[in-house]
Amino acid sequence: MSPPRLTPALARAQADLDSVVELARELVRIPTRGGVDPYDKAIDHLSAWMNDQGLAPEVLCDATGAPVAVTTRVHGLHPGPTWVLDACLDTAPVGDQAAWHHSPFSGAIEDGWLWGRGSADSKVAIAMFCHLATHLRTVPELMHGDLVLLFDLDEHTGGFGGAKRFFAGPETPPDIGGVMIGYPGMDTLVIGGRGVHRMRLRVHGIAAHSGSSRTAPNAIDKAVEIVQSLNARPLPGPAEGFPPAKATVTAIDAGQGYSVVPDLCTVNVDIRTTPAFDGTRAADLVTDVVTAVDAAWPTTPPTLVEAHTRWPPYALAEEAPLRAALTGAAAAHGLDLGTKIAGPSNIGNFLAGLKIPATAGFGPAYQGLHATDERVRIDTIPLAQAVYDHAVRTLLGSTPR
Q1: Within 10 A of 259 (CB to CB), how many other CB atoms are there?
Q2: Mean pLDDT throughout 102-120?
Q3: Distance CA 158, CA 265 (A)
Q4: pTM of the model as a whole
Q5: Close Cβ partners of 6 (under 8 Å, ≥ 6 residues apart)
């Protein structure tokens, strides 16, 4: 990558770098594994930092009173839409800690990299966005609309409680222009994603003693036929920039001990959808497979298909303001930023269902996302922050400077 062009936004980001890295390190040192660790310490630390900078954080809670997000709003003096910078404060699990080069909660710096779980996904993004907001809060006269920071505490559980609470809750702003999600990666801007259609199949057999001289219909055997039939069905290939549709059996659960023929086997099916193979076609595929197998097992109860998650595929058009603002900001800094539609689904798919446009990935260079030795390349942080700074000011109707 060639040296970026020095702009006022990049100068601000370079001046912020030590503070951004220190805040990110402090957050990495506080374990926030989704569904595993308590979040109070991380919430308190981040909230204290934001309060010190005049950002007035608010903790959002779900219906049970559990915290699901930290958020704040920077108000502009002129009317306009609300733009959201989103990043997750919770993290993936760490696996075998002994396999890490540095402790996953060390926040170590070595060879120009910041190491630790959450460094890439997405505590560096939180630190960048906080610093960006501290600059904007001093120039409300330049802002046509508001900027919101949203830091989700329920992303890696798959619950997306923070996003749901903010975007589909009673206080949801009516004028959201779009959302920029701070997943890492400097090569491309993610402007879409395959959808997801998840189902749980409850496959029935007939319970019996495994030692009986008569053979009873085994729910596991029946489930195997369903899985094999699903795997044999062809799905559409790549089209319109989307990766190919994909069906994956992700979990099978049945039986206990050795002496009972199981009468129930649950099968989790994850289907990644595209415009050419949407959720309706995904559901029809599973229904066809299940119906055919049930017919071949007439003495067993029919399989129950339970819908779990349904998110549509999405892609931002080339003229979409978010896409144009971020690619334009990258170009202003000498970065030729390509675009792509991601294979994995993300919060952008949830937002697409609410008709809210979103980008889902541009940030510092990284390695080890959701894997051992997660880390971020420190010298790429200022450029990532500067691009977001420039893009946000463009969206807020200000001449970037």
Answers
A1: 9
A2: 97
A3: 23
A4: 0.89
A5: none
